[in-house]
């Protein structure tokens, strides 16, 4: 899958819980989410690494983190 699996899963979860979505749309989203979870796609190593990468990117933009922490995040992202 070319999209970030974690983002897809979060979008599906949001669709399921959105009261403005039709029951049909909620059912389709839940079915796809169930498929992702049963296949292990939602818990794949790629999904985990994408989350780690997102965390480091967020750290770089967080004004409350130390320069040392930002430097570490930059090193991790440069190694990717």
From TrEMBL:
Cellular component GO terms, alphabetical: cytoplasm
UniProt cross-references to Pfam families, sorted A to Z: Con-6
Annotated region (Disordered), positions in chain: 1-80
Biased composition (Basic and acidic residues): 21-48, 67-80
InterPro entries per the UniProt record, alphabetical: Conidiation-specific_6, UPF0654_domain
Signal peptide: none
Top-level division of the source organism's lineage: Eukaryota
Regions that span the bilayer: none
Name of the protein in its database record: Conidiation protein 6
């Amino acid at each position: 899958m070319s999209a970030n699996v974690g983002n897809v899963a979060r979008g599906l979860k949001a669709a399921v819980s959105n009261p403005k979505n039709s029951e049909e749309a909620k059912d389709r989203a839940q079915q796809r989410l169930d498929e992702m979870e049963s296949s292990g796609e939602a818990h794949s190593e790629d999904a985990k690494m994408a989350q780690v990468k997102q965390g480091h990117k967020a750290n770089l933009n967080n004004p409350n983190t130390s320069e040392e922490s930002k430097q570490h995040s930059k090193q991790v992202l440069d190694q990717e």
